[in-house]
Amino acid sequence: MISVTPSEIIEHLYCPRFTYFLRVLNIAQHEDRHYKVQKGRQIHENKTKLNPKYLRQRLGVVAKHTNLYMRNEVLRGEVDEVLMLANGKAAPLDYKFAVYEGRVYQTYLHQLYCYAWLIEDHFGVEVTEGFLVYTRSRNKVVSVEISPQAKQVVRAAVQEMVAVTNENIFPKATKSKKRCATCTYRNVCPQ
């Protein structure tokens, strides 16, 4: 079985060819060039230093784990915050260097679904919601429902990634050609 990160699952769901270029052809994608990725990492580091014992009581938080690295049989990753809730459940919280525009992007949702899978396996508690903090909108907190079907989406993506990797499958590209414009593999992909 392969070991993947939430970012790799998100990229696979964005376009399955990410998996082929990264895992079959072993071409690094040089995401360090992306300003938002770097800025997001900086924000994560700063948040851990500011008021580390603060609990979001309005959300029903009774305890939290910060920058927690977890792994299960196929997935590994670090969650900004794992919130332990008064109702006995847990929830991931992720900081975004972004402005809230009235809707949550699929990439953010898929990331929360991955974190929910990790948290459930690590702590053995149910995860039915997650939270996003939009740092460029005065730290607006947005709650996201995480259903069993949503978690199944990322599990199914991992199965597809295994097939691409183990069977050397060159998958179809995304149907959205707009995505190709900013893809890190656009120079090597026969779109």
TrEMBL record:
Needed cofactors: iron-sulfur cluster; [4Fe-4S] cluster; Mg(2+); Mn(2+)
Superkingdom: Bacteria
Domain DUF83: 7-189
Note on cofactor: Mg(2+) or Mn(2+) required for ssDNA cleavage activity.
Keyword list, A-Z: Antiviral defense, Exonuclease, Hydrolase, Iron, Iron-sulfur, Manganese, Metal-binding, Nuclease
Record-listed E.C. numbers: 3.1.12.1
Gene3D superfamilies on file: 3.90.320.10
Signal peptide as annotated in the record: none
Biological process according to GO: defense response to virus
Principal EC category: hydrolase
GO MF, any single term: exonuclease activity
A Pfam family of this chain: Cas_Cas4
Cross-referenced InterPro entries: Cas4_exonuclease, CRISPR-assoc_prot_Cas4, Dna2/Cas4_DUF83, PDDEXK-like_dom_sf
Family: Belongs to the CRISPR-associated exonuclease Cas4 family.
Function: CRISPR (clustered regularly interspaced short palindromic repeat) is an adaptive immune system that provides protection against mobile genetic elements (viruses, transposable elements and conjugative plasmids). CRISPR clusters contain sequences complementary to antecedent mobile elements and target invading nucleic acids. CRISPR clusters are transcribed and processed into CRISPR RNA (crRNA).
Protein name, entry field: CRISPR-associated exonuclease Cas4
Organism for this UniProt entry: Microscilla marina ATCC 23134
